[in-house]
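QA checklist item 7 of 12: single-chain prediction sanity check.
[x] sequence parsed
[x] length recorded as 269
[x] structure emitted
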Amino acid sequence: NNVDRLKPPKRGFFETIFCCWRNGRTKSNQSGTPIDGSITPPPIQGQPRYLLPQIRPSDMYKKCMVIDLDETLVHSSFKPIPNADFIVPVEIDGTVHQVYVLKRPHVDEFLKKMGELYECVLFTASLAKYADPVADLLDQWNVFRARLFRESCVFHMGNYVKDLNKLGRDLQKIVIVDNSPASYIFHPDNAVPVKSWFDDVNDSELLDLIPLFEKLSKVESVYTVLCNSSSQSQLTSSVSHHNQQELQQSQQQQQQQQLQSNSSDVNNT
């Protein structure tokens, strides 16, 4: 599938978790510099010091929001989609292909609101020749102050990781929104995970997250609110607790439905 060449390779959730656990004790780059957010690595010789340009005066007191593209804001496919929001031509090996793009529900409202609250940065592990024209069509309000693509990622254990140390912003004031845990394994406590989206028209994930991001925009440090997983055991416990909550909610709903059904039967009788 040609679209897979444009997007980053995907790993299963538990494979990603295992990768995080296996490397959690020695998080460092090739030079031995920690990449857990405690130290900003020195710039690589001949490359810009940071990935982001100097902050704009209008964003001086805003936090930085790093937003993923594929399966977070949109879903793309080379297969024709009748109700596609965009159709983007992309050249691959000398041949132009049509990429059909679906917008996630409430993405427009989400982007406009985040543009008011944050210095927003698009950071995707996809190729620029695909992601850049999609962003042109998606971002009608110039919300994204910068766009970063695959070449700005760190290739680590088979994953394209978004190293927030390289942005040139205070880590306490950065939040990353992404559907892939592998993308933020260096900085799990800066992340707000979102479920992957493909075509569910009833999805409300982006809309539901707005109150959280409104709160985050006002705190001194995002770490006072976000504490996703400082260790593998905490992450596993969190996932297990979430699954147990879902199971309990499902059981409660079934019990309520059964009670309502019994009550209805009694009334009918």
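[x] summary fact logged: Confidence is low (pLDDT under 50) at residues 12-44, 229-243, 262-269.
[ ] second reviewer sign-off
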